[in-house]
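Consider the following input, taken from an annotated entry for Low temperature requirement protein A (Micromonospora vulcania).
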Amino acid sequence: MTTNRVAHLLRKRESPQRPTFLELFFDLVYVFALTRIVHEFVLDYTRGHVAETLTTSLSENGETLLLFLALWWIWTQTAWTTSRYDPFQPAIQFIVLATMFGSLLLAVAISGALAETGLLFASTYVALQVGRTLFFVLTLRGHDLRRVNMLALVWFGVSAVPWLSGAFFASEVARNSLWTLALVIDYLGGRLGWPVPRLGRSRVSPWAVAGEHLAERYWQFVIVALGETILTSGMSLLRGPIVVERTLALALSFLTTVLLWRIYFYRAGQILGEAIAASANPGRLGRSVEIAHLLMVSGIVFTSAGSELVLMDPTGHAKPAWVVAILGGPALYLAGRSVFEHVAFARVSRPRPIGILVLAAMALVLVGQPPLGVGAAAAAVLLGIAVSDAIRAHGRPLEQASPPH
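Applying the prediction step yields:
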């Protein structure tokens, strides 16, 4: 491939930074994928002995969380790809669509990924990471980004060993241990810049060249996660009698989703692109953005699972594990939102950590209460934070981005 051809694959600094329709199309698979993850979390809290003890439920949650982190890493790598490379080029579109199909296979394999479909999940994940990276190694000759992909390919090759080996183990402990090791390798490699002995590490960050694009991609994924919550709660209502209590549970789920949306987008969510542009170190700031969104999306997923639990038995007795799910999701979301606020404004407003403490305190006293009441308590905390944001902003000029670095 000629140098000119390589240049055509790269995203231009002067080109529009808005995500393309292809990227929005790609996200549709993740609506389905998140739905499968939420379904697995709900099963963790309801099947057999798992529903009776908090420790066993959290152990099961850890297995499902492992699958979620694998999906998140695939999505993040794809967002980086369309930030570094021109998504209007046919070759890049092929990579995105191939990753989209692979993500669909991963979502299908989730239900049995820790049993009969483990090999499908692991082999698809490895094929996506290794195949995509190898493509850029072969096509970016003569460009600095080829070295970045060569370093990443080494790390993905190393992590492929525990991914594929784990798929052949019947023991859950062995499989989970190997897959956890594989994920640690993948995440650590990306965090450190894919360091390889004698070859060094990558110091190229997509945030430095396409921060605005990546900012929009992350908030679009938040919208996908919120949309999944609405989809899951609506489908859950249809799986049982449509009575007053369950209809109230649906209304409560919708209100909670609206509050999560409101807390996200006002005001940090609106100016994330500006914060990235104003930062003296967009790569470092971008890593904080990734952590913040991972925490927030995880919180939304747990909140969605909690809402489904409320819809299943709104007037029953909430088990300890159920209370953790219903209140823990919003708490995790607020933790991520606090990091997000620090990225935009170099500060964290007090209502967010106070809200986390209140949710933790309520968890101690709400065990055994009706799940509908537990969900209402979580919504009340979120409502208090949203109202506090509105009061603080009333009559004041819109706050401008002020990143910490």
